[in-house]
Design brief:
single chain; mainly alpha
């Protein structure tokens, strides 16, 4: 109880001193502004470009600064809480407290094979599949647009009008539409395809189809070319479908295996308890003596 009163007294003195320090409104405003600047400066220092890239690739609109500050704040708050609790109860400092705080940092680390990193990798793969699906839908719409019998929309106009139907490539299509008008269709297509990784499974096929079709002056020739490329587009769509369901199948396998593993561990635990119970009943005397 004495330690608790001592702690409350110290906190009260610090609080009163802080109130006196920021007694006037002008001082309060300056203090809050300075505190905000210090907080932002700390966030800028701990912000990692790699983590921000991982968050962007995963489709999460969260700044790496907030994630990093949350990680270290959670570990620090836990450690302070445990230290204060031990101080109030007059307990000795436990070595497990900093280890648990370190465990919080490890679990929330964005490294690939750690829990949070695994979640980011899973979200990234999910985002890539959805983005590729939208890209296939875009090329399908483009094919339908060029094969219309009563005329078709120009490439820039088409990209701008269809962008609103997508989520992951929406902004890229809007910019593609603007670049097609300002820089030309060929340069715009090159820019758009460069937004995807070099090892992308079918972006080169999309690039070739768009460049070849838009480079033809004869609309009939372009329509015939698109009909010929329909098999390639269908194969791309089929491969994407298999990739999507393969991803879902892997996730379903993990979910189905968890109950089996839990059941096995429960059986092992019950067997160990049974063995210990029998051993306790014999009081250390061998069963076959």
């Amino acid at each position: 109880m004495d330690r608790l009163l001592l702690l409350v007294t110290v906190i009260g003195i610090v609080y009163v001193a802080l109130l006196v320090f920021v007694s006037s409104s002008s001082k309060q405003e300056r203090y809050l502004v300075r505190l905000g600047l210090r907080w932002n400066e700390l966030g800028e220092r701990v912000q990692g470009d790699r983590l921000q890239q991982l968050l962007n690739d995963s489709g999460l609109s969260i700044s790496a600064r907030k994630i990093t500050l949350f990680r270290y704040s959670a570990a620090l708050i836990y450690l302070i809480t445990q230290v204060v609790s031990d101080f109030i109860r007059s307990n000795s400092f436990s070595i497990y407290d900093p280890l648990i705080a370190l465990l919080i940092l490890v679990i929330s680390s964005p490294m690939r094979y750690l829990p949070f990193g695994w979640v980011l990798a899973w979200l990234h793969q999910k985002t890539v599949i959805k983005k590729d699906g939208e890209l296939i839908s875009f090329i399908r719409l483009y094919e339908n647009n060029r094969l219309r019998k009563r005329g078709y929309a120009q490439f820039g106009t088409f990209c701008g009008s269809t962008a609103g139907h997508f989520q992951y490539i929406r902004q890229d299509l809007y910019e593609l539409s603007e670049r097609a008008v300002d820089e030309g269709v060929e340069g715009a297509i090159e820019w758009f395809c460069a937004k995807f990784p070099d090892n992308h499974s079918f972006i080169n096929d999309i690039r070739s189809i768009l460049l070849a079709t838009e480079g033809m002056d004869d609309d009939t020739e372009a329509a015939n070319y698109l009909r010929e490329q329909g098999k390639i587009i269908s194969k791309i769509s089929s491969d994407q479908y298999l990739k999507k369901w393969s991803f879902i199948g892997d996730l379903s396998t993990i979910i189905n295996v968890i109950p089996s593993i839990a059941t096995f561990l429960m059986i092992v635990a019950m067997a160990m308890q049974y063995i210990l119970l029998i051993k306790g009943n014999f009081n250390g005397v061998g069963m076959f003596q």
